[in-house]
Write a structure and sequence with these properties.
The complex is a heterodimer of chains A (294) and B (391). Chain A is built from 10 helices and 9 strands. The N terminus of chain A is likely disordered. With 294 residues, chain A is α+β, with helices and mostly antiparallel strands. Chain B is mainly alpha-helical and 391 residues long. Chain B folds into 2 domains: 45 residues; 288 residues, Formate dehydrogenase/DMSO reductase domain (Formate dehydrogenase/DMSO reductase fold). Helix content of chain B is 73%, strand content 0%. Chain B starts with a helix and ends in an 11-residue tail after the last helix. Classes of the chains: A alpha+beta (294), B mainly alpha (391). At the A-B interface, helix 1, helix 2, helix 4, helix 5 and strand 6 of A face helix 2, helix 4, helix 6, helix 7 and helix 8 of B.
Chain lengths: 294, 391
């Protein structure tokens, strides 16, 4: 359990005054008079974007959602059953056992509000759309796989078997959403374990279900705040760590790197200025010394 | 006709020069050439068939030996900007004899980095993608641009050696006139990307253990690149001098060791302060695989140079300097690899990673090719000054 608390602490850490001063000292001259920090997905209104609510107390593990996903996205069958998402399996239902009950969890892209994958993508192939989905433009991707490292949910998968591999992942059925349809997985769920609406509606729904049956649910909507919030939300009767969810803080995954990346132009220009100054001083000092020696 | 004559001369000279070498020298050169050749063939094979069947990389461990070595080599190649800063910016003429070997090392180091990056990419055919498509938030985007610019700067810094050899004083004058501004831009670009290598992990809080994850990682990466750069210069000068049958300027090398003590002291203070303030000290006492790797890194990369470079007898001894610089290099390798493998991957299955044979062969091949190229260029170009010039 100490593992989990540490991760929370790690993601929650913000830039303190002390650390700001340390950074100031290092960026040569401390010209840290930067205005507000721009974020990759600042303009998105999280409440109006599309959202999925997964209720772990309702899922029966029938895997209809997996099949619907494969069918809609034309994904080939796996040669053997898989225990994790792959380049050809964008959603997966896995069984989890606690002391008392068996529960199922549906894996897919969480469609974060401030996605780590979007922030780190070298070429901007991944974007968070105002409609909710985190979408991928395969024509830009260079296959660096930084997105795979940045995702705390292990979602982006690479086409390892291809000579020229690309990233593949759940699209939130952005094409269906554009036509006013629900995502394929939601549309086929026979037991209502998946609900679809705006994020505001889904959060209200989640809290309403918890309030109506406080004995049946733990009082936690996973994805409401985790990593700055996600568009896919979960409610459950057992703690989320028992369903394989990472314990994350409320800061966006790439909060720290985005905070620092804005200083790059300043670091570049101030280094040039400081180095030129040092060059001028040492050159002059050497010249004075030489003239004295003569 | 002309071309055939040139080719004939080249082959003839190469053969006679090779015959002049000692038996040991011949063995080393032939081995390097064989490893480089094997690496090239294996690298082409990997490009043809993809990453899945040739590497042990996976969705859980998408980065491995190649990326880790790239991060290490960028710091090792940092010897070029470090020595350029010492000699050109701080005007420390005493270290002039080390500058050209360091620039050549940096140039070949960065080319090796680019070759490995290309082989590691899922779409090597689109390696240029960061030029038309920008994401200013991505540390890797910044690093790609900096490496592109800096490799150009290194080519500019190596070019005068070529024109000096070709005896073209007019072209040489053009380069000489621009060398200070170009060098300063090169150091500034290095400052950016050497520190941004640390920022790479700031974007991975869930994958980077707190023994490494810290807001000051960019500063630690910058300081360690300078510390590595100084030791890399010592290492290259000692090995290069031996290979070329020269006497290294021991006074300069000892001086570099002395400077690097201060760099590593600053690094250690910042690292200790950070671990104390964030309360991560408790992980240091857990000697599991992670805790052990942390200590190997600290002892080899930081403590060894602080202690040994402080001793006068070490600074004046070739063996002493060589072993200390080797320890720093190995420790830095641990330092650059460690955060990549410090946390469990966020997948619901058990996955581990150990590099495949292909990964090793390609990596060793690229390093062997770089070493061979260094030796050949050091023989061809005036990278060493006449031994008594700086008396």
């Amino acid at each position: 359990m100490s593992d989990k608390t540490r991760k929370t602490a790690s993601a929650n850490r913000t830039l303190t005054r002390r650390e700001m001063l340390k950074l100031a000292g290092a960026s040569a001259g401390g010209l840290l008079l930067q205005p507000g920090i721009a974020r990759a997905s600042e303009e998105i209104d999280p409440d109006n974007g599309a959202s999925i609510l997964f209720d772990a107390t309702l899922c029966v593990g029938c895997k209809s959602c997996e099949e619907a996903c494969k069918e809609w996205n034309h994904l080939p069958e796996e040669p053997a059953p898989v225990d994790d998402m792959t380049a050809n399996t964008w959603t997966l239902v896995r069984q989890y056992e606690s002391e008392t009950i068996e529960l199922y969890r549906k894996y897919q892209c969480m469609h974060c509000l401030h996605p780590g994958c979007v922030s780190v993508c070298t070429v901007g192939a991944l974007t968070k759309t105002p409609e909710g989905p985190v979408v991928y433009d395969s024509s830009k991707c260079i296959g660096c796989r930084y997105c795979q490292y940045a995702c705390p949910f292990g979602v982006p998968k690479f086409e390892w078997e291809k000579a020229l591999g690309l990233i593949r992942k759940c699209t939130f059925c952005a094409d269906r959403l554009a036509d006013g349809l629900e995502p394929a997985c939601v549309s086929v769920c026979p037991v209502g374990a998946l609900a679809f609406g705006t994020r505001k509606e889904m959060l209200e729904e989640a809290h309403a279900r918890i309030d109506q049956n406080p004995n049946q649910y733990i009082d936690h909507v996973y994805g409401e705040f985790e990593a700055g919030g996600t568009s896919v939300l979960y409610i459950s009767s057992i703690p989320f760590s028992a369903l394989g969810f990472p314990t994350l803080g409320n800061q966006p995954i790439a909060h720290a790197s985005e905070t620092l990346s804005v200083f790059t132009p300043l670091l570049l220009t101030s280094t040039i200025a400081v180095l030129s100054g040092i060059y001028w001083v040492t050159k002059r000092r050497n010249a004075i010394r030489e003239s004295k020696e003569e | 006709m002309e071309l055939r004559a040139v080719a004939h001369t080249v082959i003839h000279t190469t053969r006679t020069e090779f015959e002049k070498l000692s038996k040991k020298g011949k063995i080393v050169l032939v081995t390097l050439a064989a490893l480089a050749g094997l690496g090239i063939v294996t690298g082409i094979y990997r490009l043809l068939v993809g990453l899945g069947s040739t590497t042990n990389l996976s969705d859980a461990y998408p980065w491995g030996l190649w990326l880790g070595f790239d991060f290490t080599l960028i710091a090792f190649g940092g010897t070029a900007f470090t020595m350029a800063m010492v000699v050109h910016v701080f005007n420390q003429e005493k270290y002039h004899s080390v500058l050209r070997p360091a620039l050549l090392t940096g140039f070949l180091g960065y080319i090796s980095v680019l070759v490995i990056l290309l082989i590691d990419l899922g779409r090597p055919d689109r390696f240029w993608g960061f030029i038309p498509y920008a994401n200013v938030h991505s540390p890797l985007f910044e690093i790609c641009w900096c490496i592109l610019i800096y490799t150009t700067v290194l080519a500019f810094e190596v070019a005068p050696m070529v024109f000096e050899r070709l005896n073209q004083p007019r072209t040489l004058r053009i380069f000489r006139a621009a060398i200070i501004p170009v060098t300063i831009v090169g150091i500034a670009v290095s400052t950016c990307h050497q520190s941004t290598l640390g920022t790479i992990y700031l974007a991975l809080p869930a994958r980077t253990h707190e023994l490494w994850w810290s807001w000051v990682m960019p500063i630690l990466y910058y300081l360690s690149a300078i510390g590595m750069g100084l030791s890399a210069a010592i290492l290259v000068m000692l090995v290069g001098s031996k290979a070329l049958g020269r006497e290294p300027d021991m006074e300069a090398l000892g001086g570099l060791g002395k400077i690097s003590v201060w760099i590593w002291v600053a690094y250690l203070l910042l690292r200790i302060e950070d671990l104390l303030m964030t309360g991560d000290l408790r992980y240091m006492t857990t000697l599991d695989s992670r805790g052990t790797r942390f200590w190997v890194e600290i002892l080899l990369m930081v403590v060894t140079p602080i202690v040994l470079y402080s001793i006068r007898n070490v600074r004046t001894s070739k063996v002493g300097l060589l072993w200390t610089a080797l320890a720093v290099t190995l420790g830095l390798g641990f330092n650059r690899f460690n955060p990549m493998f410090s946390e469990r991957p966020p997948v619901p299955i058990e996955v581990s990673y150990f590099p495949s044979l292909v990964e090793f062969i390609v990596q060793i091949g690229v390093l062997a090719a770089a070493a061979l190229a260094w030796y050949v260029l050091a023989r061809l170009l005036p990278i060493f000054e006449p031994e008594h010039q700086h008396a």
